[in-house]
Design a protein that fits this description.
This protein is mainly alpha-helical. It has 5 helices and no strands. Helices cover 80% and strands 0% of the residues. The protein is flat, with a radius of gyration of 19 Å. The termini are far apart.
């Protein structure tokens, strides 16, 4: 992800932690299966397998498109309640344009500092998109804990 020799330290740490993380994930999947969440357990198992077999960008894309994003959007729809389809489209368009604009500014202003490795660039871009994603999720969560429990933006 770093795209330079100092990234080797990060890689070694991740390799050292990976077996424990994988074991914890497997225990969680088995527990979910026994708890009745078989669809989630199977999807998570398939996503983890994809992350282990496929190249990093492909594995992450499969995980994101087929597991994280649909579940996250379904949870958001439940959380937000009566939000109009227009609001969903406008929010998606604004956030997408903001991410693309942020990437364009970042890539053009720091082009000489970016690693030549496209995989490293892809994961660095994902890291920058994660921050607005988490901030927006936290904002929704705070609004819900202060309000009546659901948005009414129909």
């Amino acid at each position: 992800m770093v795209g330079n020799p100092s990234g080797e330290i990060v890689a070694k740490v991740l390799i050292a932690v990976a077996p424990v993380a994988l074991l914890v994930t497997i225990v969680g999947i088995v527990d979910a299966w026994h708890g009745g969440a078989r669809e989630w357990a199977a999807a998570t198992g398939a996503a983890i397998l994809g992350l282990m077999i496929a190249p990093p960008v492909v594995g992450f894309a499969l995980f994101f498109v087929f597991l994280h994003s649909p579940r996250h959007l379904a949870d958001a729809r439940i959380t937000l309640g009566k939000v109009s389809h227009r609001w969903w489209l406008a929010t998606g368009a604004i956030l997408s344009l903001t991410a693309i604009g942020g990437w364009a500014i970042f890539a053009t202003s720091l082009a000489q500092r970016l690693p030549a490795d496209l995989t490293a660039q892809a994961f660095q871009l994902l890291a920058t998109v994660a921050v607005p994603h988490l901030v927006f999720s936290k904002w929704i969560e705070r609004r819900l804990t202060r309000g009546a429990g659901q948005f009414d933006m129909a």
